[in-house]
Amino acid sequence: MDLTQLTLKEAIDLAKKDGAQPLLDAFSKRAQALNPKINAFLRFDPAKVEKNTEPGSLHGVPVSIKDNICIDGREVTCASRILAGHVAPYNATVIEKLKKAGAALFGQCNMDEFAFGSSCETSAFGPCKNPWDLTRVPGGSSGGSAAAVAADMTLAALGSDTGGSIRQPAALCGVVGLKPTYGRVSRYGLIAFGSSFDQIGPLTKTVEDAAILTNIISGHDPKDSTSASQNVPDFTQALQRDVEGLRIGLPKEYFIEGIDPEVEKSVRQAAEVYRKLGATIKTVSLPHTEHSVAVYYIVAVAEASSNLGRFDGVEYGLRVPAKDLREMYFETRDQGFGQEAKRRILLGTFVLSAGYYEAYYLKGQKVRTLIRQDFEKAFREVDVILSPTSPTPAFKIGEKTADPLAMYLSDIFTIPANHAGIPAMSVPCGFKTVPGTMGTGSGTCPAGVPGTVELPIGMQLMARPFDEASLFRAGYAFEQEVGIYKKKPKL
Predict the structure, then answer these.
(1) Strands 176-179 and 424-437
(2) pLDDT per residue as tens digits for the range 209-239
(3) Is the peptide bond before 141 cis (omega within 30 degrees of 0)?
(4) Class at the top of the CATH hierarchy for domain 3-291+365-486
(5) Distances (CA, A) of 65 to 1, 95, 103, 329
(6) Per-residue pLDDT for 22 more than 90?
(7) How confident is the model at residue 402, as a pLDDT?
(8) What is the C-alpha radius of gyration for the chain, rounded to an integer number of angstroms?
(9) Active site residues per annotation
(10) Alpha-carbon distance 487 to 7, whole Å?
(11) Phi-psi region of 353 (alpha: psi -120 to 50; beta: other; left: phi over 0)
C-alpha cells in the first residue's frame, strides 16, 4: 500500500493503530524525490521532521505550513529576500493548536512573496509548479501548500487567504481549500498582508479532511483582537450526503464574458448534480461584484504598505551595509523586496497619502460595505452560493507576469468573499483537457511525445458568516457523488 495516497482521515486511523513513523518515512521519501521538480517546499529536511509525541487527534501525521506562519525556532521568510535568515521567536496560535493535536510539522511551503500574487511566481526562491503540468502555475499565493497536497508530498497543509490565496491554488491543483469566516481562525503569528482580509485555512485532499483540520485550528484567541468569540461546532457532523432542501444560488455576475467555457460548463454541471440530489437552484444577484477587484487593490494594498513598513533592515532579516541609516533603508528595501512587493507598497502608500485618502481608500471602504450588503441580501434567499473559483484553469508559467492587471483578474471570483468576511471553499468539480508533452514533466504520454494534459477545475461555495457547516455539507455531498478527488496527477 502506498501510504502517500491516503487521505488525512485514513492516515489518522492508520497512525492510531500502527504509529505515524511509517507515514513520515513514506512522505519524506516522496517529497525528496518530487520537490526538486515542483519546488513546493522551501525548507524540508527529512532528518529533522518534527515528530510530535504529544497524544492528540492527529496522532503524529504530517501537516505542512505556508512560509508566512511563524514556527518557533524556524526560519520564516514569506518567500522574500528581505526576511532571509529571520527565525520566528514564537509559535503562531494555529501552530500551537496543531502541536497540541499531535501533528508532525512537515516542511514550509513556497508562496508568492508576502502573499502578493495569484501564481506562486513572485517567490524569491523560484516559482512553484503545478503537479498536473509542470509548465503551468499552481496558483497563488498558497501555491506551495496546494501543490504539496496535490502531489501527495504531504497529507494536508495550511495556507492563508487574503483575496483567494487558498481557494484559487486549490482550484488549479485539484484539491480542497477553505477560507474560514474572518475571525474564525486566529491570525496571531501570521505575517500580515491585509489585516482586515487575511485568514488562515486548510488545503486538503478531501472535504472531510478540511473539516478535521478546521475543527483543530478554529476558536477564539485573546492574542488576536479580531478573533471572534464564537462557539466552534464539530464540522465533521455536517458531512452528510443529504442536501435535500438546501437552497443554492448561482450569481449571475459570476458567469461573465471571458470565463473559460469549460469552467462554466463544469460549474453548471455541478449545479445539476445538486438539483438531482434534492437541492433547490436559483439565480441571485451580487451587483457590486464588478468593483471588487478595484476596491481590493486600493484597500488591501494600503494595508500591505502599512504592514510592510516594519521591514527596513533594522530588526528583521536582510540588512544591506551602507554609509548612513537613510541609505541602509533604501538599499535594504530595494534589494530585499521583489517587483510585485514594491508595486503594492507604492500603490498602498499612494492611496493613503494626503489628498488621496478620501478619494481612494475611504471610497474603497464604502464600496466594500456595498459588496458585503450584496451578500447579506442574497443569503436571505439562499443558504449557499455556487460559482467558479477561478475564471480559467492553470495558465502557463510566465504567461501573465508581464501584465499585472491580467494576473489580478485571476482572483475576480474569490475577492468578494474576503471583502464580506464570509466563509468560502473551493472543491474540485471537473477537468479541462489541453495539449501537453510528457517531456516537460507533464501529461500522460511517453517522454517527449505530444499528448494531452488534464487541468483541474474548481467550484466555489460561499455561505453566511460562521456557517462553514453548510459549506462542508454541500461540498461533501458533491464530492461523494462525483468522486473527482480520487483522480491524481501522473508524476
Answers:
(1) antiparallel
(2) 999 999 999 999 999 999 999 999 999 999 9
(3) yes
(4) alpha beta
(5) 26, 9, 11, 30
(6) yes
(7) 85
(8) 21
(9) 66, 141, 165
(10) 13
(11) beta
